[in-house]
Structures are given as C-alpha cells and as structure tokens.
C-alpha cells in the first residue's frame, strides 16, 4: 500500500510540473503574439504563413 502511494505521489508531482511548464510556455507565447499584434500589427496568421513558407524552403524536394 505504501509503495503504491509513494509512486502515485511521484507521478502526480511529475504531471503537475509538466502542466505548470506547459501553461507557462503557452502564456509566454500568447503574450508575445499579443505584443506583436499591438506593437507591429502582426497577426498570428501572418506568423503561421511565414512558418509554413520557411518549412517549404527547407524541405528537400
């Protein structure tokens, strides 16, 4: 019983750290997108278009 509780606590803490990191990164990206939109008028669609163009340039066709 005790080893099961210890293992579940370790898994819980690990998943909590992953969730915290994911949310932090998502909020950082959202803040960058908002600042780019407000400061320079660059929309997320513009950024996505540039990313897809870059992927097409570097793809070995």
Can you lay out the helices and strands and say which pair or pack?
Blueprint: H1 2-40, H2 44-58
List low-pLDDT spans. none
Number of helices: 2
Q: What does the largest sheet look like? A: none
Helix-strand makeup class: mainly alpha
Strand-residue proportion? under 5%
Q: Looking at the structure, what is the overall shape?
A: elongated
Fraction of residues in H or I helices: over 70%
Provide a descriptive summary of the structure in words:
With 61 residues, the protein is mainly α. It has two helices and no strands. It is elongated, with a radius of gyration of 20 Å. It starts with a helix and ends with a helix.
What's a concise summary of this model?
The chain has helices spanning 2-40, 44-58.
Keyword list:
61 residues; mainly alpha; 89% helix
């Amino acid at each position: 019983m005790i080893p099961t509780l210890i293992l579940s606590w370790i898994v819980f803490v690990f998943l909590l750290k992953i969730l915290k990191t994911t949310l932090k990164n998502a909020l950082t990206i959202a803040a960058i997108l908002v600042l780019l939109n407000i400061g320079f008028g660059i929309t997320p669609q513009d950024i996505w278009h540039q990313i897809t163009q870059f992927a097409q340039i570097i793809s070995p066709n």
